[in-house]
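ESCALATION

Customer reports they have been waiting on this structure for their group meeting. Please prioritize. Original submission:
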Amino acid sequence: MVTQVVEPETGTESQPEESSEARSLVRRPILDLAGKAQGYELPYWTGQQFLFREKSGLAGLTELADASLFGLEQLSRGLPAFVNCSSSSLASDWALTLPPQLTVLQLQAAPEPTRELLAACGRLKAQGFRLALTGLAGPMECKPLLDLADYVKLDFVRTPAADRKALLHQLKNSAVQPIATEVMTQEEYRQARDEGFKLFEGCYFCSPEELKSRLIPSNRTVQIEILQELQKESPDLGRLSQLVKCDASLTYRLLRLLNSPLYAMRQEVTSIQTALLLLGDAPFRRIAMLAIATEFNGGKITELLRMAFERGRFCELAAQPCALTAAEQYIVGMMSLFPAMLRIPMEDLVRLVPLRPEAQDALLGMGNREGILLKWLELHDRADWAGCDQIVSAANADTQRIMRYRAAAAAWADAVLNSYV
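Update from on-call: job pushed to the front of the queue and completed.
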């Protein structure tokens, strides 16, 4: 499952608990047909606190209040936040500590819900909360809860096609929105879309299709040449400026980003050459990569682009404690999603950019040291905490520090994209 990690507080570092259970919060995007996020699933919530997995023991209501205060609006970027709840937590009305306008209470479907559970759901709906059901085994199962639901989440892999079709038919004239979950490939996405789903959860959007080699469009060729120039230890300022000028859209995006509050330039930037002189090599390389990534993604602000920005920044920040080169890791992180944007195989892409062989091997998933941060992201997205800890331990780094870097990267990616809108 694809996840994004965000820091609980803006501008300050949270103090993680010392327990091995301590993890930053995650968000899992729910996307529409255009690839835009329509909500985020958040960690498991027992009614006492947000968790990665349910565990025993009680926590004070203050903990929940603090989580609610910093949590949902920031975590979900103002979109619906799907929060997993147990039946007991709903019946106890602990959900009332969460903001109803943002919260979708996600509940495992019960074939025979109790009167107490139905009454609790009714009360919460009256307060403005929305309800999502998961784990339905058939179209007519759990009818009383289905009548209260705003969303139904179906595991696309485990739910038989006939049951999916029957449930979609049943919901056709209702206000309930079905969500296909565990959609892992482009083929599954197309199948779910063709069946009638309009909301999807899964990592399909950052996984390129199985594609044969194909020619790169001319405007992309110019951008690849820019990437090549940026890889040089001392880029040719004149050559780089001329290349950027060859792509009007890229020039616009780059100047717009440079003039945004994110970079707080003391004077307005009116040319690429001026930008290079004012910023210096390293910052210019990073924002040029951002502008190129936006172009690669068709200029659309999608979750795929957001994740590419986050990956690049995370790999850059986490490079130092892992004894890696920050500038190279930024490129590795960003380029890991370029095949999905450009719809070309990674094998073709790495041949176009003069990266070191070690960086190329990292992008090709060869399991070398330069690829450990990408591997960490992959394991974290699958909630393989043991695998994440093993990588961090082998690199003689600190887990909490690495988690804070990804939190900072997520906040930075959001700030960058906000500069475009």
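Sent to customer with the following note: The CA atoms of residues 178 and 338 lie 30 Å apart.
Escalation resolved.
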